[in-house]
Amino acid sequence: MEEDLRFCTVKPVVDCGRRNCFEVSSPTKSLVLQADGEEAYLEWVIAMQQAIGAAIQRGMGTGTVVNIRELQSQNVKGLNRQHAKPKSRNSGNKF
Q: How much is the average pLDDT of 72-83?
């Protein structure tokens, strides 16, 4: 697979007979990957798109694997915050 993410793309795969699939393509190779579930699928696609965008903006070639992991970690933290239940302001007070 291409080490330089500037030359890669990621897109959903709809017509493969499986759920939660996406394709990562480089000039030399394409991979169709399947996530365990919809949430993981969204995390991977978003992380890959952000990493590719960051690589294009920065003109990076090496070290992009670290950026993918960092971006995925940030996305997971963001999703966890979105799914957390808001705490009541008066949770312990009885007025």
A: 52
Which domains does the chain possess?
5-60 (2.30.29.30)
pTM value surpassing 0.70? no
State how far the Cα of 71 lies from the Cα of 94, in Å rounded to an integer. 42
Q: How far apart are CA 69 and CA 39, in angstroms?
A: 16
Q: How many Å apart are CA 26 and CA 40, to the nearest integer?
A: 22
Sole residue written with tokens 């940030």: 74
Chain position carrying tokens 């992380």: 47
